[in-house]
Write a structure and sequence with these properties.
Blueprint: H1 3-27, H2 38-55, H3 63-88, H4 95-115, H5 119-144, H6 149-173, H7 178-181, H8 185-223, H9 233-250, E1 255-261, H10 264-271, H11 273-290, E2 296-301, E3 304-309, H12 314-330, E4 339-345, H13 352-368, E5 374-377
Parallel strand pairs: 4-5
Antiparallel strand pairs: 1-3, 1-4, 2-3
Length: 380
């Protein structure tokens, strides 16, 4: 590829990076506010685009200013993309740490650009910073990514560019003399081309990561109750049906708790629906704390909740139900509430609907018996 073709490709790739930054900037409003970092990623790509515009100004802008400002913008773009990923994963941005590292790299670059001009050491300083930022970004996504194609793709791109950057660094540092270290224009252009291309691919990967996160959140909303965060009725029934099939195959019992918050209508009438919602949220918090890790809590409708207890017989189910009832009763709250719990255990001839019907009957026995109590409808 001749110089003209390579330069043309660089310009085209850089324009695509700029376009990607614009796309990310505008689509960020289409994502829920819970998905952070998209705007920061857009800023990182835009910063690289500006840096290339600065480098393109050679001949019209003083050389020293081009070198310092251009490389400063490149280093800033690396950090902004990294901070965007930290925000995306809900982590605190390490601005102070990387700001200090960046300042040190900037001082080295400025010194060997303006005070004691040295091509090899100037470029080496920038390469060390770039490699460190790329490896840190790679490690971040490796540790916090969801393991899907999008995160693996970004990891691959970062790893490839970090490897290229490290190779260029060693080729400079191991050169026998400063003169031997001076690269041809084509080698420099090839490196810049790989760098710009990596940004473009990172932008694509980051857009895919944001889409994956959106899909996960939509799936979570579809399966979980919006107010309490526990499973919705349909999702809970799906789990219950799966556990029923497993229970029949293994011959081990499962249990279901049907729960209803006592006098909830009075709470709504006396305190209002906002307080009623808070009571429901608090109930779920205390109920979740009383259940075991393997148990599944779901909102069945209104103030009615259900819990699935896998591989649990009636004796153990009563212990869990009583612990839950007690936790709700003893919880401090204004207003306080209690719960009536019906317990039913499975047998091989019982469907999920039949099991729920037994638990429902047991719950009404608890209500008729004075509320704030646990009743068992055992298998025949």
């Amino acid at each position: 590829m001749n110089d003209l073709d390579l330069r043309s490709a660089m310009i085209f790739a850089c324009l695509l990076v700029g376009l990607m930054s614009v796309v990310l900037f505008f689509i960020r409003g289409s994502y829920p506010k819970s998905i952070h970092g998209i705007g920061t990623w857009a800023s990182g790509l835009a910063t690289l685009f500006v840096s290339y515009a600065v480098f393109s100004g050679r001949g019209n802008i003083p050389e020293a200013l081009v070198i310092v400002c251009g490389n400063l913008l490149v280093m800033a773009s690396l950090l902004i993309l990294y901070f965007g990923s930290q925000r995306f994963f809900g982590l605190k941005t390490s601005i102070r740490l990387w700001g200090g590292i960046g300042l040190a790299a900037l001082l080295v670059m400025t010194w060997f650009s303006l005070v004691e001009p040295n091509f090899r050491l100037r470029v080496a300083g920038v390469m060390i910073f770039a490699a460190a930022a790329l490896f840190a970004h790679l490690r971040l996504i490796f540790l916090h990514g969801n393991g899907k194609f999008s995160s693996r793709f970004v990891i691959f791109v970062l790893a490839l560019e970090a490897t290229i950057t490290t190779s260029r660094l060693f080729s400079l540092l191991l050169a026998p003399s400063n003169e031997a270290a001076i690269e041809t224009q084509q080698i420099q252009d090839l490196y810049v081309m790989s760098f710009i291309t990596s940004y473009l691919l990172q932008g694509i990967g980051m857009m895919l990561m944001a889409s994956d996160r959106l899909h996960e959140e939509l799936e979570h909303l579809a399966r979980h109750d919006a107010l309490t965060g526990c499973l919705g009725r349909r999702a809970w029934l799906d789990i219950c049906n799966q556990e029923m099939d497993r229970s029949i195959r293994s011959g081990r019992q499962m249990a279901v708790l049907m729960m209803d918050i006592d006098h909830f209508k009075k709470i709504n009438d006396n305190y209002g629906h906002q307080i009623g919602d808070r009571v429901i949220v608090d109930f779920v918090k205390h109920a979740t704390g009383a259940l075991r890790r393997a148990d599944s809590l779901g909102r069945y409708g209104g103030e009615e909740f259900v819990a699935l207890l896998p591989e649990t017989g009636s004796a153990q189910a009563l212990i869990v139900a009583e612990r839950l009832r007690s936790a709700v009763e003893l919880a401090s709250g204004n207003p306080s509430c209690t719960v009536s719990v019906g317990v039913a255990t499975s047998d091989v001839n019982l469907s999920v609907d039949g099991l729920l019907a037994r638990a429902d009957r047991a719950m009404y026995q608890a209500k008729n018996g004075g509320r704030n109590r646990v009743e068992l409808h055992a298998a025949n």
